[in-house]
Amino acid sequence: MTIYSLYIYDRHCACVYYQDWHRTKQPKRAGEGGGILNAVSQAVSPLATDSAAPTPSAFSSPRNTLSSTSGLVVATGEDPVTPLPNPAEHARSNTLPFDEEAKLVYGVVLSLRNMVKKISGRDEQFTSYRTSSYRLHLYETVSGYKFVMLSDAATDGLRFVLRSIYNGPFLEYVVRNPLVPMDSRSQGIDNDYFRASIDRLVRGLSVFN
Asked: Which of 23, 30, 54, 57 is nearest to 152 (CA)?
């Protein structure tokens, strides 16, 4: 049994926090303008483009070398070296960008929750579902925040873990933290203390491998 990842959504349907542990395929970074908020997770945020990056100098090129004896520039005639493909980057290229993944997860939760309410009545709550390869766990607060955790299919219900995250790290380092903008629609809730506290809580579980 193991835990894969955690998503937190605000009441505006936006993913405001993400953390993972045992994912076999790491999520692909969100694209520029993909709709992901700032401060969700450094691992999935778009890479900052550096327009001031220095251009390679002609004197650092492998084709131009300065002879130490004659002072003349000698062309070596070497072909540029083609870098080998990175297997990790190739595997990541086959996955969805994180902004699309987060929308799909929220869409599944919303659809199943609405289906349960329509079929079973408003007193029935959707808390989890299971497939052959994973299980999704849901805890929803009165204020509309949704805590979603993915684990392997053999794991028992983890709603109590999501409730503990809400009552502990979330209240301590997000709700009571004046530096974290709640419901800003432009900023996530990631901070070092919150992330470290969740990591300690999850790693201390008996189901964490």
From this structure: 23
CB atoms within 10 A of CB 48: 7
pTM: 0.76
Q: What average pLDDT values come out for the chain (209 residues) when binned by 10 residues?
A: 92 93 81 74 70 45 46 50 52 73 93 87 83 94 94 93 97 94 86 95 89
CA gap 82, 11 in Å, rounded = 48
Q: Count the neighbouring beta carbons within 10 Å of the beta carbon of residue 98.
A: 24
Helix (H, G, I), strand (E, B) or coil at 97: strand
**Phi and psi angles of residue 161, each rounded to the nearest 5 degrees, phi first:** -70, -45
Please, are residues 65 and 50 in contact by the beta-carbon 8 Å criterion? no
